[in-house]
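From the methods appendix. Each design record in this collection lists the tokenized structure first, followed by the designed amino acid sequence. Records were kept in a plain field format so they could be parsed without special tools. The example shown here is representative of the layout used throughout.

RECORD:
FOLD TOKENS (314 positions):
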């Protein structure tokens, strides 16, 4: 199997791929894409040096209860979303996987055990994404079209991963974050949907807002908990109105769980990033659901299922 070399110059990135006008709600607002990265509090990259994967089964699992709460919130507000689920979680909690699909949400892959793509060979990565896709599809009986890398770990040095995903039957990735960050990011990447080359799968970057010649995050995660809600709302509205593009927002089940166990031995930076404003997250999320129109990633961006794989959602 041959893989493409990393892009040497930002100008070689293709122009954005926009197959159709943005999806809009009944009131005319652009419909944004809501997504959830389904992983437990002890599986995050910030704690990977403290919690070896071999010990994961020894920790109290809270992912089912937290995700069930999210499913209830989405149902209350009439929102359908995309859930990127770890294969490790799906193996141990198949009922949760079926509940996500049965409620009308899109089921997508977050890889098997939250290993960053930047630490995998092409062969290991292929085995990971094929295994997880098959597991999710067999568990829920629906086609899996989407993939999101752990910690947005696809960037300029491993863009070959997008080709591997296409070969494995995925239709899109949401794994490149066009910002500057100490752990990930490809700031020169397009801010909106693009393809790396003709025939490649679609890459859907998490949303950023362009201010003073720089991309700033406004698509969720720790930044959503750190910044005042009004600033996040303003930024997403700016993307919808000035750029005319749908946003992609993400969060994790553990972010609505302020009572989760604290991780002993974590660094000050890791504690700050992980635990900041957990008690405020659910309230902010409810406001976000009310202030914007939301739907699944595949419907917002018109992602279809490959021929022979299955039928697309309504």
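DESIGN:
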């Amino acid at each position: 199997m041959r893989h493409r070399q990393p892009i040497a110059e930002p100008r070689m990135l293709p122009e954005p791929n926009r197959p159709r006008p943005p999806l809009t709600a009944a009131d005319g607002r652009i419909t944004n894409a809501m997504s959830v990265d389904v992983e437990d509090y002890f599986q995050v990259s910030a704690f990977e040096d403290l919690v070896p994967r071999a010990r994961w089964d020894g920790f109290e699992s809270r992912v089912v209860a937290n995700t069930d709460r999210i499913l209830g919130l989405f149902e209350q507000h009439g929102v359908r979303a995309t859930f990127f689920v770890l294969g490790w979680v799906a193996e141990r909690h198949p009922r949760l996987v079926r509940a996500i699909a049965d409620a009308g949400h899109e089921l997508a892959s977050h890889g098997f055990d939250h290993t960053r793509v930047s630490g995998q060979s092409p062969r290991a990565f292929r085995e990971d994404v094929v295994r997880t896709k098959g597991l999710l599809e067999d568990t829920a009986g629906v086609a899996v079209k989407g993939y999101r890398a752990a910690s947005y770990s696809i960037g300029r040095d491993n863009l070959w991963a997008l080709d591997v995903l296409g070969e494995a039957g995925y239709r899109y990735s949401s794994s490149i974050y066009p910002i500057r960050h100490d752990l990930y990011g490809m700031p020169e990447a397009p801010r909106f949907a693009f393809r790396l080359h003709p025939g490649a799968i679609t890459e859907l970057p998490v949303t950023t807002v362009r201010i003073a010649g720089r991309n700033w995050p406004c698509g969720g995660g720790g930044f959503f908990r750190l910044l005042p809600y009004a600033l996040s709302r303003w930024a997403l509205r700016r993307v919808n109105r000035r750029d005319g593009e749908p946003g992609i927002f993400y969060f994790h089940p553990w972010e609505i769980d302020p009572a989760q166990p604290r991780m002993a031995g974590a660094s000050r930076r890791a504690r700050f990033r992980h635990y900041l404003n957990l008690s405020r997250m659910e309230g902010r999320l409810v406001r976000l659901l009310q202030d914007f129109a939301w739907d699944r990633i595949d419907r917002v961006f018109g992602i279809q299922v490959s021929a022979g794989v299955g039928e697309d959602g309504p």
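APPENDIX NOTE: The CA atoms of residues 152 and 193 lie 15 Å apart.
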